[in-house]
Amino acid sequence: MSLIFAKNKLEPITRPSAGSVWTSHNVETLTVEDQLKAVKTPEKTATHTPIPHSLLVSKTRTALDRAGFSITEEEHALARGGQRYFGGFALTGDDIKGEDRRLVFGLRNSSDKSTAASACMGNSMMVCDNMCFSSDVKLARRHTVNILRDLDGMLAKAISRIVTSWHDMGQRIEAYKVAEISNDRASNLVVDLAEVKALPERDVYKTAKEFRNPRHPEFRGNTLWNLYNSVTENLKGGDLSKLPERTMKVQSLFDSIAGHESTNFVEAEEVALSS
Description:
Blueprint: E1 2-6, H1 32-37, H2 53-66, E2 70-79, E3 84-92, E4 101-110, E5 117-125, E6 131-141, H3 147-159, H4 162-177, H5 183-195, H6 204-212, H7 224-235, H8 243-258
Antiparallel strand pairs: 1-2, 2-3, 3-4, 4-5, 5-6
Helix pairs in contact: 2-3, 4-7, 5-6, 6-7, 7-8
């Protein structure tokens, strides 16, 4: 996977890892859009209308700006030779300010039919930069003939849920913080997460060890919240394109334990937006 990282939308992007799709370009001076535009988008067919990753990013920037949100940090990843894209935008706004966390607006797109163009909400902790995504707001649009017609509407609907998603995530965190668990229970939950592919099997031991001896003192103690951060700590640095699906599975399991019920649920609307 090639990874692109930018502090904000105006600064140049740092050099991706060796072997990335950008090795033929002078990437130190290219913007995110420049690099994404270099990825070839296949021609459309009667049943498949792929859209450029750069177009999705550009439309998202415009929609967020119109809604009054500012992008403070962003991260972008490509896989399969540029056929698959994932991006995350850390946002600030009048109604989503926090001292210990920030909201992340996530995007996915593909040109190989693996995923629909989609948007979801995430949360990033300041102390450790752990990132997780919620299944409460997840909208998607398949790459069919009218995708360009519907794309702005999908983004607008997702963005309209940002504030309520922010507050719902806060309620989830508080529920996790008061849910106490033993070391044995935590270890069993980590195994459960690996079984549903929310966590790579190779990270089971490291995650259980992180829970017992966290590297961040803020996450000491036998609570579901601290286990949650042990999990996301070990997911950090992995395949960014799989992060939304994995953290959504973690939340699904942990919500049932903590008794948290979202008030902001918006299911993926692929059926309604698939024509």
